Structures are given as C-alpha cells and as structure tokens.
Amino acid sequence: MRLLVSNDDGIASPFLHALVHALIADGHTLFVVAPLHEQSWTGASKCRHRPVASTTADYGFGCPTWTVDGTPSDCVNIALAHLLPGGPASLDGVVSGINFGLNTTLGFILASGTIAAAWEGALHGLPSVACSQDISQDEFITLQKDNSLAALPALATTIAHSAAHAARLAGELLPATGREKFLVHNLNFPVGCTPATQLVRTVPARVIVPGLFSPAADDGTHRFVFANVIDRSPPGIVTDKATVAAGHISHSVLDYTRL
User: Among residues 127, 109, 104, 116, which one has the least CA distance to residue 202?
Assistant: First the structure.
C-alpha cells in the first residue's frame, strides 16, 4: 500500500522511526510528514493564526520525508493538499504513531494528537490507524530528556514488537475499511508486547479526569500535571484501558458517523 505516516511526538521520535521501518519491511510505500517539534495533547487543532512551514528532511527512511512546524492535523492536511503527488487519491491510508504513552479512554482520545492525525486522514476519505505504546513514568521521563532508546533496552525490544504488530494490522485493517467511512482504528500496545501478544476488540473506557492542572502559583499560573482517572465504565464491557492493563493489544474502532 501507499501510506502517509505521521505522529504527534515529532519527527525525531524513535517510536515513529520503528513504525516507519516496520511498514517498509512489510513492503509498503511510505510518505512521512511529521511535526518538527512535539505536539502532544494538541488534539485536532490547526495553526490558524500563524504561517506554517513545511521542509524536506532526511532521517534515513529511504522514502520522501517532510517536517511541518505545526500540529499533527496540520501535517496531514498540508501533506494531502500540497506535498504528496496525487493527493488523497494516490494513497491507501494514513498511519499515525507510535505515540509515547497510551491513547485510551474517552478522557484522552479527543485530546490526542496521534489520533487527530489519523482523523485528519479520515476527513479526507482515507482509512486510518492510530498507534500508541504504554510506557512507565520513568521511561517517559527518560524519553523526554534525550528522545532515545539507547538507555531503555527492554522498551526498545517492546517497541520493535509493537511496530511489527502495527504494520501487520495496518495491512489488514486499512484495505478492509475502505474509503469515506469516517472512522479511525485506535491501537494501543501493552508494556512488554511480544510477537504472541493477543489483539482484543475494545471500546473506550468511560472515565472522569479531575485536576489536570496544578493550583495557581504566586504568579497566578497553573501547570499541567498528570491525574489519576476515575473509571466509570459499566460492568460487562471490554474497555481499552482494562485490556492494555491485562497485557493485551487494544483495538477500538472510533466511528465518527455515530457522534
């Protein structure tokens, strides 16, 4: 397939690089258009009030690659309108990720830049997949410091397996979905993902997310903080949150025609 690949952690993300290499290894033709800088938690926002630059780049992928100094939605929109020869009609789908950390539950899905990049593809009529990787807080802090897996060998092994799953699932899900369905396949990979890790069909957990910002400091400002969610999912449903915690791959279909 001919695929557009993007993310929200930025062009230098080792998780993006793992995904790109896995997709190429599976024989797909890629075009990579990713944010120049991290754009986590930007949702589907677009840079309306400033110019956005796109620049060709070389990160050793062996495929056409650009950076965009905007949001994930900017990346996909600009790619499909201006960067890729033939636009949406020339592509078979969009793959976004792999994200640093989960994108599960109703409390976080709409805020996700990773999912937003896939959704932008769906808005252009393309089948799309978003991919995210569960990691520990310590691993997240290490990645934020140096954006490298060199000091995280166990995570490097996990992400290699998760990327292989993502490439395989993209090859299955995108052709089966077809065009103009306005849905996104949301995949979340567990800690310690292996080639044998099971895929489970899920729905987003229903959670309350209190207190994402600190109390006001002396200067009146608030700082973003991570909060513990309160799960209010009804009994008997298989949620993305519980599935990943149990060590399985979560696959939720975000069907925007049902909103």
Answer: 104
Contacts of 74 (CB under 8 A, 6+ apart): 35, 46, 47, 52, 68
- Count Cα atoms within 13 angstroms, Cβ side, for 166: 35
Q: For residue 207, count other CB atoms closer than 10 A to its CB.
A: 19
Element housing 164 (H / E): helix 153-177
* Residue ranges covered by each domain of the chain: 2-199+240-258
State the average pLDDT for the chain.
96
Per-residue pLDDT at 226: 82
Q: Measure the CA–CA gap between 4 and 30, rounded to whole angstroms.
A: 6
pLDDT value for 34: 98
- For residues 119 and 113, is the Cβ–Cβ distance under 8 A? no
2-199+240-258 CATH: 3.40.1210.10
Encoded tokens for 19:
């995904």
Distance of CA 169 to CAs 6, 22, 187, Å?
17, 11, 9
For residue 115, name the pLDDT band (cuts at 50, 70, 90): very high
**Whole-number pLDDT of residue 191:** 97
Question: Which residues on neighbouring strands pair with residue 11, listed in sequence order?
Answer: none
187 Cβ neighbours under 8 A, 6+ residues apart: 97, 129, 130, 131, 132, 165, 166, 169, 249, 250, 251
The stretch 107-128 carries a mean pLDDT of: 97
